[in-house]
Amino acid sequence: MTDPATRQTYVSQSGLTTAHDADSHVMELPGTINRYLDPRVREAFVEKTGRKDVLPEWFAKAAAQMENPEFLAGAEANILLRKNYEALGAFKAADRPKTLDYLGFASQLVFTTACLSNFGLEQMGEVELAVEAARAHNRMMAEFCAVDRRLLATGYVPLIDRARAPQIAREAIEMGCKALVIPSRHPPGFSPSHVELDPLWAFAQEARVPVLFHVGGEEKMAHDYIENGLPFVKDFHGGDENFTSLTFMAIPLSIWQTLSALVIDGVFDRFPNLKWGAIELGASWLPSLMQFLDSGVAAFGREERLQRLSGKPSEILRRQFRATPYPHENTRWIIENSGEDMLLFSSDFPHIEGGRNPLKRFNESLDGVSESVRKKFYRDNFIDLMGAGLDPALHDLANLQAA
Fold first, then answer.
1. Taking the complete model, does pTM exceed 0.70, yes or no?
2. Residue 44 falls within a domain, yes or no?
């Protein structure tokens, strides 16, 4: 392997010394999760979700293509041009270290693609299946990322079972996950600020790993809004998944409400050293939320819970919360109106939404900011978020050695 300090990578070509990627994905082939499920629940899982352990023809071709030497020969030149299942290391763990070599990211948080909503099992009320699907997801992610310590696996914790949530989190960290993911929508029947979840937050704080929200775990826009009497609008993939300019508008709503509950009900203050992050949920909404929370406290200041807060909600969020803007957002404006310690770089590799050159787009959006602010965006804020989830040897590119 070429010396990481001298290798010309996507990051170094962009004029950066070190960049950490707060959002990337595995593109699981169909049926992958089934093989990590406890055998006793596989049949019930298929019955409830329809996810069979089969590899349809199109996906079989994609898998075969990753064994084609001629196709692989163009991997480095096309590292950000090939997307989804055509991307190097998208589903084949052994190839993912090469991707990091070519990109030059000091580390990369890795999320699922197929399991982002935990298959809707929590909303179905399928508590046991939701727990077992989460455990299967965590085993899958830990195994995929075990090939290289620069790959930071994320473990999912369903909040629907408050008593078992801390144990699921502990299992995830013990098997190698470096961060915990929870849905941004509320669990069925109670708030994410419920006091019986305090043992979960206590564990995460003690372990010094962050709690993250990721797109896919939010409550979707009601379908009624789509029924407008006009022709149906296909999403940007050209399909019927219904992720369009209109449904995109609902993405911040769940995280807005959840963060409000966590701050107002004192969860952030009870665990002041616990860091939280919103990944692939955008960030243009963040300055407004901070101001709205502050104004809410001013308006309802007689509430005892508000009088117990350690400071203004905006100050509490600056202390503990981080977010990844989309490359099409005005990153400089968000920083100027929220705080220079709050935003993180992300590539969304290998999803098509990340675009062909996210670094270029973010650099353009950051035009005019100081070098210290730029360094915080690409490096420092991520290190602060990750805590013990990021090996100190990975903080800077010059110290990297592939596992």
1. yes
2. no
- Inter-residue long-range contacts of 359-367, CB under 8 Å, 24+ positions, other chains counted: 359/10, 359/11, 359/14, 359/16, 359/19, 360/14, 361/327, 361/328, 362/327, 362/331, 363/14, 363/15, 365/327, 365/329, 365/330, 365/331, 365/332, 366/331, 366/332, 367/332
322: domain range? 10-26+95-399
3-state helix, strand and coil shares in percent for the chain, rounded to the nearest 5: 45, 10, 45
Report the CATH number that the domain containing residue 133 is assigned in CATH.
3.20.20.140
Instruction: Take residue 330 and report the two structure tokens written for it.
Output: 């005005």
pLDDT of 11 reads 93
Note the pLDDT of residue 238.
58
Report yes or no: 16 and 359 within 8 Å, Cβ to Cβ: yes
Q: Is residue 277 assigned to a domain?
A: yes
Residue 31 lies in a domain: no
What confidence score (pLDDT) does residue 398 get?
62
Sign of the alpha-carbon dihedral angle for 94, 100, 101, 106: negative
Residue 140 lies in a domain: yes
As a whole number of angstroms, the longest Cα–Cα distance in the chain is: 69
Residues of the chain with pLDDT under 50: 1-6, 401-403
Residue 65 structure tokens? 């293509």
Quote the CA–CA distance of 265 and 259 in Å, as a whole number: 10
φ, ψ dihedrals at 60, nearest 5°? -65, -40
Please tell me the total count of domains within the chain. Answer: 1
Alpha-carbon span 129 to 126, nearest angstrom: 5
Q: Report the C-alpha gap between 7 and 102 in whole angstroms.
A: 9
Please give the pLDDT value at position 241: 60
The separation between CA 309 and the C-alpha centre of its own chain, rounded to angstroms, equals 28
- The sheet carrying 211-214 orders its strands as 20-25, 107-111, 151-156, 179-181, 211-214, 276-279, 321-323
